Amino acid sequence: MTITAGMVKDLRDKTGAGMMDCKGALAETQGDVEAAIDLLRKKGLAKAAKKGGRIAADGLIGLAVSGGKGAIVEVNSETDFVARGDQFQAFVRKVAELALKSDGDLERLLAADFPGGGTTAEALTNLIAKLGENMSIRRTAGVSVSPGIVASYLHNAIPGANLGKIGVLVALESSADPTKLMKLGKELAMHVAGHNPPPAALTAEQLPADLVARERAIYADQARESGKPANVIEKMVEGRMRKFYEEQVLLSQTYVLDAEAKTQVSKVLENASKELDTKVQIKSFLRFQVGEGIDKPTTDFAAEVKATAGGH
Predict the structure, then answer these.
(1) Do the domain assignments include residue 257?
(2) Global pTM?
(3) What is the residue-averaged pLDDT of the chain?
(4) Alpha helices in the chain (DSSP H)
């Protein structure tokens, strides 16, 4: 049977596979398009399985918000080139919407029905096969509040896509006018995104006890090296711990939009409560940055070029 260019184009449009792969699949199935689709999928899934060991540390953060609920998700790819592609971005947008319905639960998200058929996990495997890179839905989480609003912010955002490299959700609890709350919430979300180091907890009490104990022990050892009396050493440790809390605790941080006045976030909320004549507080917040915490291999590009050229 003759395989025409139109048949190849039609199969390529349906599967996204390469032109030569489509031509080969049609030849192998004697022009049966459906059988060719199945064949390409089987071959693609086999290739996808082989890519599973490669590190995917690039990608995008996706957000979805509806009323008093919000969800955030990190989907990783191996390269920024793939992350900037339309197919990958469309996938992340759909995953974010499903994350909202799954209340930020990763297992529920992966098992959820994906638009077009199959589960989210299966859709991911198909995309790996199609785009030729390892990918992963690394994590997701959600926030909710009532009464109040969920505000969001994306840094390095893709216009009109609700995707970016850093994503933040802030749940503001209050009975105040939602429009006024949203303005404050977005500004607070910008603060969380831009603060370096990012806040690890809302309050000091929410910080991991082992983290606090470790920092205190380090500061105590450093202070003892000064040779000063015990009471002075204790004051030195407490001073350094206050600085630590100012970096790690959101409510203790200096608000980036009022840094000159050195206003703490807690004071910003106190002022907003007075202005709106009702209590305003942060119930919870989330901050995801693409690739944070992933060990990325370092490569010597010059050495790679030299090796490719045979060492000359």
Answers:
(1) no
(2) 0.76
(3) 86
(4) 5-15, 19-28, 33-50, 80-83, 86-101, 106-111, 120-131, 178-194, 209-224, 230-248, 265-276, 301-308
